[in-house]
Amino acid sequence: MNKQDILEFMREKTYKPLTAEELVAVLNIHDTGEVESFLSILREMERRGEVILTRKSKYGLAEKMGLAVGRLQGHAKGFGFIITDQVGEADIFISPENMNGAMHNDRVVARRQSSGRNGKPEGEIIRILERANEKIVGTFERSKNFGFVVADDRRIRQDIYIAKGGTMDAHTKDKVVVSIIHWPQGGRNPEGRVIEVLGKEDDPGVDVVSIVRKHQLPENFPDKVTSEAARVAKISEEDYRDRKDLRQWKTVTIDGADAKDLDDAITIEKHGNNYRLGVHIADVSYYVKDGSELDKEAYSRATSVYLVDRVIPMLPPQLSNDICSLNAGVDRLAMSVIMEVTADGTVADYEITPSVINVNHRMTYAAVREILEEKDRDLVEKYQEFVPEFEMMAELCGILRKNRLKRGAIDFEFPESKVILDEQGKPQEIKKIERSVAEKLIEEFMILANETVAEHMFWAEAPFVYRVHQQPDPDDFGELNDFLHRLGYHISGKADKLEPASYQEVIAKVQGKPEERVISTVMLRSMKHARYASACLGHFGLASKYYSHFTSPIRRYPDLVIHRIIREFFSKEKISQDRLNKLEEFVADAAEQSSIREKVAEEAERESVDMKKVEYMQRHLGDVFPGFVSSVLPFGLFVELENTVEGLVHVSSLTDDYYEYLEDRLAFIGQHTNKMIKIGDPVKIQVAKVNIAAREIDFELVEE
């Protein structure tokens, strides 16, 4: 009897809540060992909220009892939303008075209430299953007899009370790490004690360290993990057995200039009108075995985190930067997807196989772009034997991209930037990064490999981790269309049967127009966040029925897991039903863990970059920059600069007239001058105020 069996039994229409003893009896569990195992599984399911234990000690399912289980997404204003475990279920609004001591990111059970505002579901938190904020980073404030800490994460609204003996002699404005002693209850603030003083909030390096501690990112690998990495980080001729030998194929990697963990390599050649495309991915699962210390640590981290000044890798450098990295000029073990692609972009045939490769050249995006677009003489001469392959790659990329957009894939063109730091960690430059043909061809080839692998494993009926992106909620779709109507656009289709092609049509219409950026941003925000799941639910944004993450096992745990499953399913040994059941449970756990850690990584990465952008703009107080109006809200308008920095022009700073907000036109209009300021307008601004702690920049418009 496993977890899935219990859930299926409880989902039957005839099931009513039963005690543990009644469940043992009705399921005919007699053996003492089996009873103990069953009760242990039941307790674990209760702890996770997969089953609910009532006050009368009976077990039932949340969805049948008017309850919802999920993770609380807090908001700086005190309310929150529960992101439920139920696939396809709308988020549940929780008002400040119904939080009942829960804090941002806690795993909770809520009682559903009748739909509230706008017909959206509301609830009240009745149980906290798992606390997420045992340690909190913030700024210390000292008073005579006690202290308190204001959390850096604004979604944690309550100040943390620190008794006189728990301050570690911290001073006002010190950045500290607090361990929670008592959780908030009955209107009382949480209580904690200082366990680490990081330094003054404006000391060099304290800012990024605060982000690392705030998100509880691991900084060092345990000794047992690094020792194991040192033992396994070797390669010999024996490791080449039962592998396709591709060392004579012309192979390149194409990455950013500063990349050290090279996951993927490419080979390409033409057979008549068809292309033979080889996507070779580092065979990390060969080194990181199921249940090993390396595997446990990789599961815990689930992803590498790329902060503005450092990388926190998923795997130790002996693996990530050395034996697993597809470095040029050395033999490396890979998992290869070799696809025969027709002239119209269809995969006519494919092979997924363990391989051994030897990369000829480590190429950068910049070098490939200069070869293909700039026709740089020196680079063309240096890599002349590979120029035909680069041209073939660009040709195939164009075919695949055209096909993808034709089927309705949504392609947002958001400008990206990189903050350049000096040796002290101070921002020196914000560099805008353009997507060139080099980035696009790698993107297209990886998407094709991910789709090919996902579809193969779906039809093999293997337990698997899919990358899923579900269609937007009907309510979010309705709000998006209301917004688009104000700007003269409309997404066609019914709210419950949306097609990604309808979104792409709007993206194509606004391309190059002043409102392109804001429409793309609002459309993206209206869509659900992609995540990992053990069910194949499709990828709305890519308009793909089958999708997985296969191509980055050095830095993503789901990729590592599915490599391991592929190897197991390709072996000649029959997989037992018991093993299949265990795999089913594991991929579900791995998918949830990876989704949670991915969100944490994204938040930390974004926060570290935003922080340095604000710090950079502090040096430009009083300076004037060109920009454009990126959004208009009742309290003011946001302006984006050429370097992607965004700041607020508050309506109170518009002093040449009294301005009225026009919601239907997303604009401000002067009452006396009829001067209109709307989305997309080019403007000049002066940097008026910068608040690094709050990550806020205030601009003022400069008259031409």
UniProtKB/TrEMBL annotation:
Protein source organism: Metallumcola ferriviriculae
Biological process per Gene Ontology, one example term: mRNA catabolic process
Keywords: Cytoplasm, Exonuclease, Hydrolase, Nuclease, RNA-binding
Protein name, UniProt field: Ribonuclease R
Pfam families, sorted: CSD2, OB_RNB, RNB, S1
Main location: cytoplasm
Gene: rnr
Enzyme superclass (EC): hydrolase
Any one GO cellular component localisation term in the record: cytosol
Function per UniProt: 3'-5' exoribonuclease that releases 5'-nucleoside monophosphates and is involved in maturation of structured RNAs.
Taxonomic placement: Bacteria, Bacillati, Bacillota, Clostridia, Neomoorellales
Localization, UniProt: Cytoplasm
EC number: 3.1.13.1
Reaction catalyzed: Exonucleolytic cleavage in the 3'- to 5'-direction to yield nucleoside 5'-phosphates
Sequence similarity: Belongs to the RNR ribonuclease family. RNase R subfamily.
MF annotations from Gene Ontology: exoribonuclease II activity; RNA binding
Domain S1 motif: 622-702
UniProt xrefs under HAMAP family: RNase_R
Cross-referenced InterPro entries: CSD, CSD2, NA-bd_OB-fold, RNase_B_OB_dom, RNase_II/R, RNase_II/R_CS, RNase_II/RNase_R, RNase_R
